[in-house]
Amino acid sequence: MGVSPGSAYGPVVQVASPVGPPRDEPAAADPAAAAEQAIAGFMQVAESLDAKAAQADASARDILKATAMIARDRSLHRAVTKHLSAGLGPANAIAQSIDEFAEQFAALGGYFAERVTDLRDVGSRAIAAVLGEPAPGVPDFTEPSIVVAEDLAPAETATLDRSLVLGIITRAGGLTSHTAILAAQMGIPAVVQLAGATEIPTGTPVALDGGSGAVTVNPDPAFVEAQRERRARLAEALADVTGPGATADGHHVALLANIGGVHDAELAGAEDLEGVGLFRTEFVFLSADQEPTVEEQTEIYRQVFAPFGDRRVVVRTLDAGADKPLAFADLGAEDNPALGRRGLRLSQARPEILATQLEALAAAAEATGADVRVMAPMVATAAEARWFAEQVRANGLPSSGVMIEVPGAALRAAQVLASVDFGSLGTNDLAQYTMAADRMEGELSELLDPWQPAVLDVIAAAATGAREAGKPLGVCGESAGDPFLALVLVGLGVTSLSMATGKVRAVRLALRSHTLEQCEVLAKEALAAESPEDARQAVRAAAAPEVAELL
Ligand SMILES: C=C(OP(=O)(O)O)C(=O)O
Ligand SMILES: [Mg+2]
């Protein structure tokens, strides 16, 4: 799976495997003293991460600090103390506790499941500390290389030297893993989920394509040269197109960024794009135990809005629940959280949480003069949309919208959009619900593919409804960042595209190389296909050859 675009060629550097606990480790002779020693190990890990954080840039700093916080976690220390008293040696007590926590994180799914890598990283560093061994991780190297690992801990990815790392390959990881997010932010081409990645010997030359996900071991010189030449032509083509998103015949399609906090906002704000199409506010509060106050929220929103001047910022109210649980907005366990009281349903059950957020958004909008538009997640009916619009209006905010990510809302888009100002297709969840496939289940990735013709049918129905209602309809799911799918979406009638900041330039180039009518033809090609793969191929084959060859 390609997760950060661009191609690279160079020798492999394998990342040392994490340190495991010795099998024959004796029980601690003095469990209390051993507990002290283990906790000291965790603290040493936390301190070394903090020291790295102090030298890192802002995004790396947040991640390193978050990992350091895991190392300081008292419940983790208590678990280790318990296992020491029960007769384990220090390294095994740490390993056992980390396993238990990892299991709990994995069971929570989503954001927490992806923190398992951070947790295991803390564990192996702490084990190395109590055993007096060097910390695991990326070895020192001086020649520009392709870093290959089972999975990269955020602390490792965040501190990679950009000038020496040509590309990243991992055997594990996913589209939303830290490796993927950070690599895309740092502009390092990356491929994840490559079977056999860790078996490629250090020093082996490999070529990787972070767009298609292709990795070639020992490529021949002609292949490497062709890839290098293509890379140069793409860079030139991307540099040639700037400014607002538009088709070759001038049909405007706003190109916007998806952001999850202040740092993303600063990065996106500095780019040539038209604003934010999705600010996932729940990302800011994932580790908050208590509901942040109006003042606390206002300050964060103010910092997020500031980099955009008078550009638009579409803010999504808390999408809590399912893959993004929030401690302060939890309605208790559910058998099927993805089908449960999440998103707007949770806001209706706990209206005071929404009220606090809207008050803070209104205050931050007023303080910055930003063009703030507020959008609700997981809307299913016209009545829900109407209720949300009333809450937004009551707070003096001028523009309200809804995510269209439930098939029921997509099929009735004309009615659902009637009482709001705009809609935005969340194709990640729309694919999950249309195909009845859990989006966190890697084994079901083919069903979750936004190129699934059935998903495109549902999008087409929503676009027709939006046109009837006379309301703009954007896309803010991952699909908007795929340049070929972006053409199809525009052909289906979508009016704006919001994506990871690093993906905007390729989408702009694709759009500028096709007329609206050509996009409509491509959309018909995709709808006529039987499978996602057929749809992809048909669109690639029918797209303008000079850009299809580069992207
Ligand atoms: C954009 C979306 O929202 P999220 O990924 O945050 O659920 C979506 O579902 O497509
Ligand atoms: Mg969603």
UniProtKB/TrEMBL annotation:
Enzyme Commission (EC) number: 2.7.3.9
Residue numbers binding Mg(2+): 405, 429
Domain Phosphotransferase system enzyme I N-terminal: 2-115
Residue ranges of every copy of the PEP-utilising enzyme mobile domain listed in the record: 142-213
Compartment list: Cytoplasm
Xref: Gene3D superfamilies: Phosphoenolpyruvate-binding domains, Phosphohistidine domain, PtsI, HPr-binding domain
Catalytic activity: L-histidyl-[protein] + phosphoenolpyruvate = N(pros)-phospho-L-histidyl-[protein] + pyruvate
Cofactor: Mg(2+)
Domain PEP-utilising enzyme C-terminal: 242-513
GO biological process terms on file: phosphoenolpyruvate-dependent sugar phosphotransferase system
Keywords for the protein's UniProt record, in alphabetical order: Cytoplasm, Kinase, Magnesium, Metal-binding, Phosphotransferase system, Sugar transport, Transferase, Transport
Domain of life: Bacteria
Enzyme class: transferase
GO molecular function: kinase activity; metal ion binding; phosphoenolpyruvate-protein phosphotransferase activity
Binding site for phosphoenolpyruvate: 280, 316, 428-429, 439
UniProt key word Disulfide bond: no
Major location category of this protein: cytoplasm
Active-site residues, record numbering mapped to chain: 178 (tele-phosphohistidine intermediate), 476 (proton donor)
Listed GO CC annotations: cytoplasm
InterPro entries, per the entry: PEP-util_enz_mobile_dom (IPR008279), PEP-utilizing_PTS_enzyme (IPR050499), PEP_util_C (IPR000121), Phosphohistidine_dom_sf (IPR036637), PTS_EI (IPR024692), PTS_EI-like (IPR006318), PTS_EIN (IPR008731), PtsI_HPr-bd_sf (IPR036618)
Function: General (non sugar-specific) component of the phosphoenolpyruvate-dependent sugar phosphotransferase system (sugar PTS). This major carbohydrate active-transport system catalyzes the phosphorylation of incoming sugar substrates concomitantly with their translocation across the cell membrane. Enzyme I transfers the phosphoryl group from phosphoenolpyruvate (PEP) to the phosphoryl carrier protein (HPr).
PANTHER family: PHOSPHOENOLPYRUVATE-PROTEIN PHOSPHOTRANSFERASE (PTHR46244:SF3)
Stated family: Belongs to the PEP-utilizing enzyme family.
NCBIfam families associated with the record: PTS_I_fam
Name of the molecule in the record: Phosphoenolpyruvate-protein phosphotransferase
Organism field: Leucobacter tardus
